[in-house]
Design a protein that fits this description.
Helix content is 49%, strand content 14%. By secondary structure, it is of the alpha+beta class.
Length: 235
């Protein structure tokens, strides 16, 4: 799209599509599970659309301060969620143009350039073709399923990690904030002598590896005798 404002509206529509699918999926869960899902519990949050070579769409509850210079923001609201989409590209934020995404996306570098340390979600897509309603629906449903499974897993962990509930609370807080390595390290603290958990943590923290905190959490739930949400036998 040659018109920058048309592109911004397309991105804002994509974001609304994600949130609509999220809300639709969340409506199928029990009220208390819905209440613990990050986008529904956040109140008002900001969605950043940052253009490097790829388009990065990330939601955060961190404040970004007032608009400055050529920054643009479009508001949105749906089913109890309220957000503003703020747009950054190399013209508005020149440091984005220095990120090399020739071989792969660099979400950590994009977040660092924006100064954002915690995220509710981070989606990487291609400008234009990757902004279809179908793709937005798929992303939103997947986010809701993942967030609800995490909420149920943490409830299971609290019931089984007696005396370590505070560590489970910290792990859940790290999950809501999108702090992958913190979640992995807290899993080890919750079950410090469990071999499968230790192996999963070591694998997740291997140099050059992108940590998968969801996989580590599922191993932790199983190690403590529970069934991870979304697996056979899960409640």
């Amino acid at each position: 799209m040659a018109d920058p404002m048309a592109m911004r509206r397309a991105v804002a529509g994509y974001v609304e599509g994600i949130h609509a699918a999220y809300a639709t999926q969340a409506a199928t869960f029990p009220p208390a599970v819905r209440g613990r899902m990050p986008l529904l519990a956040a109140g008002r949050f900001t969605v950043v659309a940052a253009g490097a070579r790829n388009l990065h769409v990330l939601a955060t509850s961190e404040a970004l301060g007032p608009l400055r210079g050529e920054e643009v923001e479009l508001p949105g609201a749906l089913d109890g969620m309220e957000w503003a989409v703020r747009f950054y590209d190399p013209v508005v934020l020149p440091a984005l143009g220095l990120i090399d995404e020739g071989e792969q996306a660099r979400p950590d570098e994009v977040r660092g350039t924006l100064g954002i340390s915690t995220v509710l979600y981070h989606v990487v897509t291609q400008p234009g073709s990757g902004l279809s309603p179908h793709h937005a629906g798929h992303v939103g449903s997947g986010l809701a399923a993942g967030h609800s499974a995490a909420a149920r897993d943490f409830d299971t962990l609290r019931s089984r990690a007696r005396g370590r509930e505070a560590l489970v609370d910290e792990m859940q807080g790290a999950s809501v904030a999108g702090l992958a390595r913190a979640q992995v390290l807290l899993a080890r603290a919750i079950a410090p002598h469990n071999v499968p958990v230790g192996d999963a943590v070591d694998t997740a923290l291997r140099p050059g590896t992108c940590p998968d905190p969801d996989a580590v959490r599922r191993v932790l739930v199983e190690a403590l005798g529970g069934s991870p949400a979304g697996t056979a036998g899960a409640v």
